[in-house]
Amino acid sequence: MAYEEWTAQVSEEIRTDALWQMEAYRRAMFLYDLAWEDCEKLVQDVRGREATRQIVRSAGSIAANIEEGFGRGFGRAAKPDHCSARHSSPPTKAERPPQESAICNPEV
């Protein structure tokens, strides 16, 4: 699914939230939905179940850390959450099979 398609399907409740104005948050939420979609194939295989758990947790924690940091405002107090969000993404990239990932799709 393309990003523009996805944003059109997001509920109005989420789109009217102040966080939605933040591009990084929108992209993190999109990544989370793509991770779920990608993991539908992985979870069917016993070997992919643990990887699926890690991918979904990692992808979800990026948006969650942005939400938490946003609630604290900006400056010194927000810095630890923004750093956590940045460090949540490497496991997501490293643990998904590239050939089966919608995230690797150049159209996305």
Describe the structure.
With 108 residues, the protein is mainly α. The protein has one domain: de novo design (two linked rop proteins). It is built from five helices and no strands. α3 packs antiparallel against α4. The protein is flat, with a radius of gyration of 15 Å. The chain starts with a helix and ends in a 13-residue tail after the last helix. 24% of the residues are buried.
Spatial separation of the terminal alpha carbons = 7 Å
**Helix content percent band:** 55-70%
How much of the residues is beta strand, in percent? under 5%
Label the CATH architecture. Up-down Bundle
Low-confidence stretches: 92-106
Q: Please state the structural category.
A: mainly alpha
The Cα radius of gyration reads 15 Å
Q: In the CATH hierarchy, what is the class?
A: Mainly Alpha
In round numbers, the mean pLDDT is 77
Number of individual domains: 1
**Number of extended strands:** 0
CATH fold title: de novo design (two linked rop proteins)
User: How many DSSP H or I helices?
Assistant: 5
